[in-house]
Amino acid sequence: MEPDLVVSLGQKALEMTILLAAPVLTATFLVGLVVSVFQAATQIQEMTLAYIPKIVAAMVTVFLLGGWMMGRIVDFTREIFVNIPLWIR
């Protein structure tokens, strides 16, 4: 394998990781922001209050987008397995 190929595969893997993690991270960020504004408005300073809504938001996001995520990672893995004979010479 050539070094350029390894770097390209690593770059594609990182892009796939970012693409798959972005929806869950965005959902938990937005829920955390809403909970923080709520805590500031009501002056509730409980640190553990934000954990449950964030976990629920992450679970709902994975439930809703899990099929899409699985499809993307399966396509990526299939592409790698199909191209292995071309890369090894």
Automatic annotation (TrEMBL):
<dbReference type="InterPro" id="IPR002191">
    <property type="entry name" value="Bac_export_3"/>
</dbReference>
<comment type="function">
    <text>Role in flagellar biosynthesis.</text>
</comment>
<dbReference type="GO" id="GO:0044780">
    <property type="term" value="P:bacterial-type flagellum assembly"/>
</dbReference>
<keyword id="KW-1003">Cell membrane</keyword>
<keyword id="KW-0472">Membrane</keyword>
<feature type="transmembrane region" description="Helical">
    <location>
        <begin position="50"/>
        <end position="70"/>
    </location>
</feature>
<dbReference type="Pfam" id="PF01313">
    <property type="entry name" value="Bac_export_3"/>
</dbReference>
<keyword id="KW-0282">Flagellum</keyword>
<dbReference type="InterPro" id="IPR006305">
    <property type="entry name" value="FliQ"/>
</dbReference>
<keyword id="KW-0966">Cell projection</keyword>
<protein>
    <recommendedName>
        <fullName>Flagellar biosynthetic protein FliQ</fullName>
    </recommendedName>
</protein>
<keyword id="KW-1133">Transmembrane helix</keyword>
<comment type="similarity">
    <text>Belongs to the FliQ/MopD/SpaQ family.</text>
</comment>
<dbReference type="GO" id="GO:0009306">
    <property type="term" value="P:protein secretion"/>
</dbReference>
<dbReference type="GO" id="GO:0005886">
    <property type="term" value="C:plasma membrane"/>
</dbReference>
<dbReference type="GO" id="GO:0009425">
    <property type="term" value="C:bacterial-type flagellum basal body"/>
</dbReference>
<keyword id="KW-0969">Cilium</keyword>
<keyword id="KW-0812">Transmembrane</keyword>
<feature type="transmembrane region" description="Helical">
    <location>
        <begin position="18"/>
        <end position="38"/>
    </location>
</feature>
<keyword id="KW-0975">Bacterial flagellum</keyword>
